């Protein structure tokens, strides 16, 4: 028996660990991911594997170069989340090299150049996504309509290999735009939103993810389910998702009421693009969001606001990734300004006044 | 009764079932007892016996010295074998002056102090004096001399004596057992204390996981007006003085003030029992109830232990500790302290001796902070541990102080919850110690500076005085010379002078 006396309390510790936390997040992502992989078929599965593998390799390489233990780094699961989220934010039939470039930027640049786990300022997956979005806009905005596995239309193995590793698919003329992209293009042609909405998938189809979009963002109910699971497990709190989604919904509703020809409504804002995935799984990234609840409310509000502004006024149909990155840059400032009130002190930090009666 | 929510707080595994159903048993009298002169906060006591003296149980061995101190009494009859330096039951393991008492096996009481027949007719001072004479300190672990705390009624308008029976630390059940088995003594002691404090009301707060204790106390409280028993939610650190006050009364104690400033004084339930014994029976504090527990202990127990018993003897009485034991600590697992050795004594503040195995401590190497914010969410003081720790790591103690590290109560909630197993409380304890030391240093330098300045000023004054004296003497001499010269050689002026 060797009794250790080197440290002071506490001498017991909760069951929580970093890897437990990370793997819970992966578990929460699984249902939506599986559903969407089914929806977009074998090419999507191949791309998913490529992205995960590329991120894991990058992590191992970076950790080895900096003299760390690659097994331990992979074991904490954080890079798997990065790879997973990155895959989910790519067009499901994007070529392999888009995924690899995105992975390198996400893991090597956004994460390890800043000092590794916990040190990065920007959400690695979103950095990867944005880098390829601005570098390869064509590939990044070419979506396919769902072609579920085991249905006619769904590509077989060799065809899938060609799509991901070969000539790509856009040449085949089956490429299409996401709903938000479609509205944006129509709007630029002078077609009012009210009209382009008629050829838009129904809200019901939007709900079940049956529309073109990134690999993992379309199955809203399953993403919501995963998000609620994370809240129940106390991995995330409601503050960021609720403030972000509420902001987005309110802005959509208010502006589409004022000017329906130019603005999509609240429900469309919520159900399209990466709103839900972003709210529950991306904006809530621990490392790059504020640590206090009030800071998180402000952060979620900022992401919602910026998403809406980018979707409405900028050249890109989709704004979540940019919005998250912009708010990431503000996180240190939010952390400084939004602290809980200290027990026994006023918000300003002065001791509370002693009661008048003595 | 309406309760108020407290911030943050965690729910560690309670593990109280190991001992909660074990009635308090007495420890067979040890052969030798080791009584450190400092078993309390404040100045160490001053020995009043010498080696070789025969003493009786309850006899004073050391007197309180200074405003904050507590007397030490003989826990049994016997002979003073030595007064010597021994390892203190403190993680520092520093030696401390300790009285060694060889028991004569008779356990004979000395003449007890006279019981105070009607404490409610006695003056506050009389009760306070008695509590001081009995050497009672806060038995919840804080070990603040109780008499000093009972004097707060003099400077504050107090409304409530809040009796702390929360016992929110995992494993510990000694207070639970005391409340169940000695409810009448606890309630009586509380009423006596409230009388001394001038507080019209007693509230006994017990965590909801001790229903029998609540029941026994309620039955007792029903017999007297003004005593109320309330169950408070099971939430660590409910037993922290300020948090308990907040939960029960809704009053938030301002930073750097006492709960007395919001009209509340908090005492532990076991302290109340000790007060009862001192006042009603004239008995000083010579033993206390200790929970011996943990996965490494063969037979966990609640034991009435004479103060000064060696921890090793106490553990032997519980069947010894197993090879799987990783840590032996004094107190609860959240705020307790590691023992430097098993050869140290049980003292007034020892509420538990726990032998914990690896699975109980669940210790892991720490990994980088992932900024999960859990430490912020669960801190009961509204602090931002992650940020304080990073300031301290970068040696920016002033910034850590600015965001409140001195408001940290070292409850350990943040360390407990941190998924990266970062020993946050270490950082804070280190910083608090360092800041206090720097403060002391600064005050000392200032003091020295002002002393030096005063000294220099005095020297300067003396020098000045000397110069003036010299100048005067010189002037006088010159005048005398001049006068002599004038006498020798009269002039017109001289004539005028004359
Ligand atoms: S709980 Fe630990 S990992 Fe989480 S923010 Fe605090 S220090 Fe960092
Ligand atoms: S130890 Fe200090 S900082 Fe940590 S939770 Fe407790 S009060 Fe807050």
From TrEMBL, chain A:
- Residues in a coiled coil are none
Share an example GO biological-process annotation for this protein. Answer: electron transport chain
Q: How does it sit in the membrane?
A: Multi-pass membrane protein
Subcellular location(s): the record lists: Cell inner membrane
Q: Which keywords are on file for this protein?
A: Cell inner membrane, Cell membrane, Electron transport, Flavoprotein, FMN, Membrane, Phosphoprotein, Translocase, Transmembrane, Transmembrane helix, Transport
According to its UniProt record, where is this protein mainly located?
Answer: membrane
User: Could you tell me the gene encoding this protein?
Assistant: rnfD
**TM helices/strands, residue ranges:** 21-38, 44-66, 96-114, 126-145, 208-231, 238-258, 264-283, 295-314, 320-338
Domain of life the protein comes from:
Bacteria
Entry similarity comment: Belongs to the NqrB/RnfD family.
Q: What InterPro entries does the entry give? A: NqrB/RnfD (IPR004338), RnfD_bac (IPR011303)
Protein name from the UniProt record? Ion-translocating oxidoreductase complex subunit D
Give the EC number(s) under which this enzyme is classified.
7.-.-.-
Instruction: Provide the species name.
Output: Paramagnetospirillum magnetotacticum MS-1
One GO location term (cellular component): plasma membrane
What task does this protein carry out? Part of a membrane-bound complex that couples electron transfer with translocation of ions across the membrane.
Say if the entry is tagged with keyword Membrane: yes
CC cofactor: FMN
On assembly, the entry states: The complex is composed of six subunits: RnfA, RnfB, RnfC, RnfD, RnfE and RnfG.
UniProtKB/TrEMBL annotation, chain B:
What InterPro entries has UniProt attached to this entry? 4Fe4S_Fe-S-bd (IPR017896), 4Fe4S_Fe_S_CS (IPR017900), Ion_transpt_RnfC/RsxC (IPR010208), Nuo51_FMN-bd (IPR011538), Nuo51_FMN-bd_sf (IPR037225), RnfC_N (IPR026902), Soluble_ligand-bd (IPR019554)
Looking at the record, the residues that make up the 4Fe-4S ferredoxin-type domain are 360-389, 399-428
Look up keyword Lipid biosynthesis and say if it applies.
no
Give the enzyme's main class according to its UniProt record, as a single word: translocase
State the needed cofactors, names only. [4Fe-4S] cluster
Q: Which residues form a coiled coil?
A: 442-486
| One GO BP annotation of this record | electron transport chain
Under the cellular component aspect of Gene Ontology, which terms does the record hold? plasma membrane
- Enzyme Commission numbers on file: 7.-.-.-
Binding site residues for [4Fe-4S] cluster 2: 379, 408, 411, 414
Q: Which domain of life is it from?
A: Bacteria
Membrane topology annotation: Peripheral membrane protein
Q: What is its main location?
A: membrane
Query: What SUPFAM superfamilies would the database entry show?
Result: alpha-helical ferredoxin, Nqo1 FMN-binding domain-like
State one molecular function term (GO): electron transfer activity
Localization: Cell inner membrane
Q: Which UniProt keywords apply?
A: 4Fe-4S, Cell inner membrane, Cell membrane, Coiled coil, Electron transport, Iron, Iron-sulfur, Membrane, Metal-binding, Repeat, Translocase, Transport
Give the co-factor note: Binds 2 [4Fe-4S] clusters per subunit.
Similarity comment: family membership: Belongs to the 4Fe4S bacterial-type ferredoxin family. RnfC subfamily.
Give the protein's function.
Part of a membrane-bound complex that couples electron transfer with translocation of ions across the membrane.
Enumerate the NCBIfam families for this protein: PRK05035.1 (NF003454), rnfC (TIGR01945)
Summary of subunit composition and partner proteins? The complex is composed of six subunits: RnfA, RnfB, RnfC, RnfD, RnfE and RnfG.
Protein's UniProt name: Ion-translocating oxidoreductase complex subunit C
Organism of derivation: Paramagnetospirillum magnetotacticum MS-1
Q: Which gene encodes it?
A: rnfC
